[in-house]
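Following up on my earlier thread - several people asked me to post the actual chain instead of describing it. Fair enough. Here it is, all 290 residues.
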Amino acid sequence: MRKILKILLVLCLLIIPAFILHIGTEIESNPPAEIINNYTLLEKEYVNRQVFIVKPKEESKRTNLNILYIHGGAYTAEIYKEHWEFAKNLVDDLNCTIILPDYPLAPKYTYKDVFAMMEPLYYDLIKQIGKENLIVMGDSAGGGIALGLLEKMGQQGVDMPQKTILISPWLDVTMSNPKIDDIQKNDPKLNKYTLKIAGELYAGEDGMESYLVNPIKGPLSALENIIIFTGTYDILNPDVHILQEKAEEKGVKIEIRETPKAIHNWILYRNSKIYRAEEDYQELIYLIKY
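Reply from S.P.:
Thanks for posting it. Predicted structure:
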């Protein structure tokens, strides 16, 4: 009963696009027609979930660059329109291969199920592709998964990717940073209390103390080449700076690209009029290329 009440409260407070919870049902992603018709799309089953692989249609255009893209959605939403559009843009501009895991979602699943899929997937990619040809990227909750995943891989001595790029990452589902309340009035997209409930569902009964749920608490010493894009009108922004401070204490450099007045995940909406979306998207492309 308590879980159902939490879910209903999330729905009542809902302000995140595509943030829809299906109680007790399997949530799966479906590629849009534009991806199916205009790109080479492969679907592979991995630990009972789908992994979508998107490549340029023309084989001659393809490069060796692979991007493992872990989508956001508060751990409860499938790959939605904005993610597919962003993947399409990356393929067009980089002639790369995008690897999109359709990982298990709360409330049916918890972080344990997510990492049961993501850990072997990453390990296999490193073996097959090599670190020099792999970039890990994630937005929002996907950024949290990406960082937690690399923290764990680092502990196990597995190679880090060439670069890791996090967009508006969710680093601490407890939402306990006091600076969040100061930013909340400027954030038109996220709600602290909604996210806190979603985080609890993702963590399950025993996950709130795990760094896989809250990667801000994780081991940072093995991380390499981390770049974070964050906006000052995003309630997840304050934790990015705490992460950077913790990393510096360990001698690890995390590069922050902070845009004043940018909202959550603004770069994904490059074709809109959202503040600096196109300029920052182009900066992201430049950082990947060079």
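The two ends are 52 Å apart (CA to CA). That should answer part of your original question.
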